[in-house]
Amino acid sequence: MKHSKYWIGAGVLSLSVLSACGSGGGDSSSGGDGGGGEEENYEPDSSLEIVAPAGAGGGWDTVARSAAEGLEEEGIVDQGIGVVNREGGGGANGWSYIHNQEGNPEYSFVASPPLLLVPLNGQSEYSYEDFTPLSNMIADYGAFAVTEDSEWDDLNDLFDDMKENPDDITVVGESSPGSMDHMQFAKIAAGAGVDPSSIKYVSAQDGSALTNLLNGQADVYSTGITETVEQVRAGDVKVLGITAEERLEGDTVSEFPTATEQGIEETFVNWRGFLGPPNMSDAEIAYYEETFKELSESDYWQETRQSYAWEENYMDSEEFEEFLAEEEESMQDLLDEVGIDRGGE
Predict the structure, then answer these.
(1) Backbone angles phi, psi at 213, to 5 degrees
(2) What is the pLDDT of residue 341?
(3) Strands (E), 186-297
(4) How far apart are CA 223 and CA 242, in angstroms?
(5) What is the CA radius of gyration of the chain?
(6) Burial of 257 (0-12, 13-18, 19+ CB in 10 A)
(7) Residue 139 has pLDDT above 60, yes or no
């Protein structure tokens, strides 16, 4: 591994980034030929920067750092790769930073459903349409955990009680209201007949969600599958259900039942992919498509997926953009069910 080229920053790092030929601020829309159609190939001639729009240790950060390490370890990218955390606004601060790099192909960021949900909630001026979809990489899934001694043993037990006494049950997550942890729970609960607008959701964006569950301040923890594994192994929590269509393979996670096997015909995919600034050229997009596809097919990425219980879900730029458009419509419908208006309208 080329450690001399692989650098990571937890804050704002200063890069001396040179724009490659043909990337200097074309005027086309996302996915168009921002370089005027003159270049046939693109190769970066300076260090690349991947932004994780949140603090260290979360899902975006893990994907960004894993990808950067894999691209270098597999010899896919020769340039140095920096991972920079730009947290705040549920991702909006990082998105604003990338948007300001318009036309510069040496920047990208990791995204997942909050890129759709946060703008729909009116909490960011930027949506996926303001960026250049490059490649989706994985599918991750949500998990709903309770303490090991909880009275509930499956999702139907929980949802039956929620139908009767919704005010007595607190669901905690680390995303903001109307964002991912809230919405994945709302979607599965609605599929079981719970009024999604009745869900008592509490946001613990300071990272205290699990603590709130364990000390009794919350009854249910809506999170990602990976975040529950060690606590399950320690005997502190049990997972009532996950949002995948089928059970996952792997130690511990294979024991987690799906919502669908409990008769709830709903799923929720926490996709994670990479987008770049607006107005990237076709050649620049093609470079990233090929780069991320090679990473997706590598032994390194296969091992990484297994270690985090991620599923392979590569999409090229066009497929990813079409998927995002469909997902945005689905997320808006779900927000309407929950009763969260766009921008407070």
Answers:
(1) -65, -50
(2) 63
(3) 200-203, 220-224, 237-242, 269-276
(4) 10
(5) 20
(6) middle
(7) yes
Class of the CATH-defined domain 6-138+271-344: alpha beta
Domain parsing of the chain, residue ranges: 6-138+271-344, 141-269
Percent of the chain with pLDDT over 70: 87
Fold of 141-269: D-Maltodextrin-Binding Protein; domain 2 (3.40.190)
The pLDDT value given to residue 98: 98
> Cα 257 to chain center, whole Å?
22
Tell me: the pLDDT tens digits for 36-62? 444 579 999 999 999 999 988 888 999
Q: State residue 90's pLDDT score.
A: 87
Q: What's the predicted TM-score (pTM) here?
A: 0.84
Cβ proximity of 54 and 60 under 8 Å: yes
Amino acid letter at 304? T
DSSP-assigned letter for residue 109: E
The predicted model gives 251-256 an average pLDDT of 96
33 has a pLDDT exceeding 50: no
Give the tokens for residue 238.
């049990």
Identical topology for domains 6-138+271-344 and 141-269? yes
- What DSSP state is assigned to residue 47? -
What is the mean pLDDT of the segment spanning 270-278? 98
Q: Which residues of 82-107 are buried (b: 16+ CB within 10 A; e: fewer)?
A: bbbbbbebbbbebbbbbbebbbbbbb
pLDDT of residue 57: 85
Find out whether 142 and 189 touch, Cβ atoms under 8 Å: no
> What burial class does residue 75 get, using C-beta atoms within 10 Å of its C-beta: 0-12 exposed, 13-18 middle, 19+ buried?
exposed
Among 109-113, 160-164, 341-345, the least confident range: 341-345
40-44: long-range contacts, CB 8 A cutoff, minimum separation 24: 40/283, 41/283, 41/287, 42/105, 42/281, 42/283, 42/284, 42/286, 42/287, 43/287, 44/20, 44/79, 44/105, 44/106, 44/287
Q: How far is CA 90 from CA 207, 226, 269, in A?
A: 13, 20, 18
Distance CA 131, CA 7 (A): 25
